[in-house]
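In this section we walk through a basic example: taking a raw amino acid sequence and producing a predicted 3D structure, encoded as discrete structure tokens. The instruction is simple. Fold the sequence below.
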Amino acid sequence: MPAASRRWSAPASTASPRYAEGAHLRADLAAALLDAAALEPGQRVLDLASGPGLLAREAAQRVVPGGSVLATDIAEGMLAEGARRCGNQADAPCFAAADAERLCIADARMDRVLAGLALFIFPHPEQALAEMHRVLAPGGRVVLSVWGPRETVPLIHRAQDCIARLLPPPKVARPSVFRYGEPATLHATLAAAGFDDIDIRPCAFSCHFADADAYWQAFLDLAGGAAEALGRLPAATQHALQAAVVDDLAAHCCDDGRGATYCRHAP
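The resulting token sequence is shown next.
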């Protein structure tokens, strides 16, 4: 999870509340990112690819009094879910649909820019980083998280392996969610965007599931748009995918005294 010195719209969907309900699986990662941001009262914070505002809501509590948080995302449904969950809280973030690669924000306006598990999903991450750099005030900080190397993140790659075995390859290949997993690659990308004082820290956490079905549902909750595509497959194919994860999870079966059958470790 790196820190360095120096915005997209879509209809609502059922994925929005499901994604928010899975927040507890990534709670340790979110806490580490917010701690690295060193938020203080009065700061102006931009949260990119905020989804339902899971990071933004906590950040808003850390910058009161006098601070503000702008939560942006391409998915208006996600933002609406975030606003619904905030209700009438006085310290709630402001939600706005925006393209991370073309931010409608003046230069040097933000003290912190957050991007949790987002950089690898941007179509043109270098442009998104350039926009982060532009809107960041002198002495400000960008804090972001990415998945580590593929083999260290069974939370993602086990399901991906099942999909690759049972489904034909996509007509248009998507960039890997692990493309910034190697610290050297991430460091070079941030440096090329003009950031200095780059600090990349590992963050290991575990996810516990009662059974393979619970793991598969958690993966779908995390997968966002990809989950909606999988949901359009024939029922038999969906069942085959769900069943295929059982064998793949065998290596991760454990008994930790908490009633968990499967433990998923992901740094």
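Looking at the output, two observations stand out. The CA atoms of residues 74 and 227 lie 17 Å apart. The chain is about 40% helix and 20% strand. In the next section we compare this with other chains.
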